[in-house]
Amino acid sequence: MNKSTLSDLQQYASQYLVGGISSSFRANPYTTLPMYLDHADGAYIYDATGKKYIDYFMGHGAALLGHNRPEIKHSIIQMLEKGFTAEFDNSMTVELARRLTEIIPSAEQVRFTNSGSEATSLAMRLARGYTKKEKIVRIDGHFHGVHDYVLFNNLAALVDKQNPGDRESHINLFSDGIPQAVTDTQIIIPWNDIEIFDKITKKRAHEIAAIMLNPIDYNNGCITTTKEYLSALFDIAHQRDILVIFDEILSGFRTGLSCAQGYYGVTPDLCTIGKALSNGVPLAAIAGKKEIMSKIWQSDFPVIHGGTFSGNLLGVSAALAALDIMSQPDFYPNMFNVANHFFDQLQSLFDTQNIPAKVQYLGSNFFIYFGIREPVTHYSQFEKLDMAMAKRFINASIDEGIYFHTDFTVSAAHTKSDVDRSLDIIEHITRRIL
Ligand SMILES: Cc1ncc(COP(=O)(O)O)c(C=O)c1O
């Protein structure tokens, strides 16, 4: 593949690879082009044409420690030298599970998967099997991967905008090929509204196995909730024999080692983690209360989970190395120091130039809401988004060597000089084109 532009590369790749890519989310929503990499290192990616970028995408937010981290590489090489097989567990699998039970509040037991989608699918099945009830309540707009049960009302653009807040949301499909029967197993409700959860569950608790949500919504930028909402939701759910599942595939490890559940101080029954868990090497997990998790291994009619590559040892070894790094006392303070400096300076840069843009952040992730000046707390505010401005800004940033895609994140590899250089470039761009 020796082509001079990303567009040439996509054209060539598309002859053999549908869309020219292996995941439809690899096309950049702002440029429409996929990124093809030559290599990645630290806070930088180098595309297949040789161009270098400061990366604020970090592999869908998975490379929280930075790309090509030596400790991760070393752990993978050690595993390869032992004669890597994905198909059996070893002492590292057990050790990783043990360590997760120490740091993640809800984790009494763990089951490893390879992708986040596999984990959310298992969490839903486990909740149904454990409670003997079929319906799952999901939050309108929350993203949980790409299996049939979660491919509707899964982004802000698919939220039922007509919902006044006192009823369940209408279904808006994200994908063709989803059977109606699947959508009938779900009740979609607006987020951060305890009254609608109370109302729906009061009437229909006998049908509802669980509520699954993102404790921090980084899939629509960076929208948060409150301890009060999560605690009230938990209390109501438990009074009515409904399980609470936090999908922490993206929020996990971004605010600290104990994930968003530790940040908010509310412990769900089950949670899913992935991405940063193994710094981008394929691995995810579901973790939760022993009584519920053990349903996977009960002798009589268990909830089945298994797979040839489940909990593959390259991911497991990478996760152990990642946990060693993330457990160092200065890891999070150092990363947040650089990240917060970047986010605050970015906001003041927009403010100084009177550009309507809100930089919203929590932990290592952030988003720039162009067209909005006030804090973004509700998806209805997305109507004010200035997509044309966002497109101009991001296309120019990518031209100038700063890469944004869908997940906006700073990693532990970004130095103060990386972010200061980014701010200089961005200031130049905003003066020129916004
Ligand atoms: C919150 C959330 N859940 C689940 C998933 C699915 O994870 P994977 O892409 O590993 O299947 C993602 C992926 O972006 C996610 O952000």
Please provide a written account of the structure:
This protein is of the alpha/beta class. The chain has 2 domains: 6-68 and 330-433, Aspartate Aminotransferase, domain 1, CATH 3.90.1150; 70-326, Type I PLP-dependent aspartate aminotransferase-like (Major domain) (Aspartate Aminotransferase, domain 2, 3-Layer(aba) Sandwich). It is built from 14 helices and 14 strands. The protein has helices at 6-13, 58-61, 70-81, 91-103, 116-131, 180-183, 194-204, 227-239, 259-264, 290-293, 313-326, 331-352, 387-399, 416-433; strands spanning 37-41, 44-47, 52-55, 109-113, 135-139, 186-189, 208-213, 243-248, 270-273, 284-288, 357-362, 365-370, 402-403, 408-409. Strands 4-10-9-8-7-5-6 form a 7-stranded mixed beta sheet, sandwiched between helices. A 4-stranded mixed beta sheet has the order 1-2-3-13. It has a 3-stranded antiparallel beta sheet with strand order 11-12-14. Helix 12 runs parallel beside helix 14. The radius of gyration is 22 Å and the shape is globular. The relative contact order is 0.16. The mean pLDDT is 97. The structure holds pyridoxal-5'-phosphate. Residues 60, 115-117, 120, 143-145, 214, 219, 247, 249-250, 274, 284 line the site of pyridoxal-5'-phosphate.
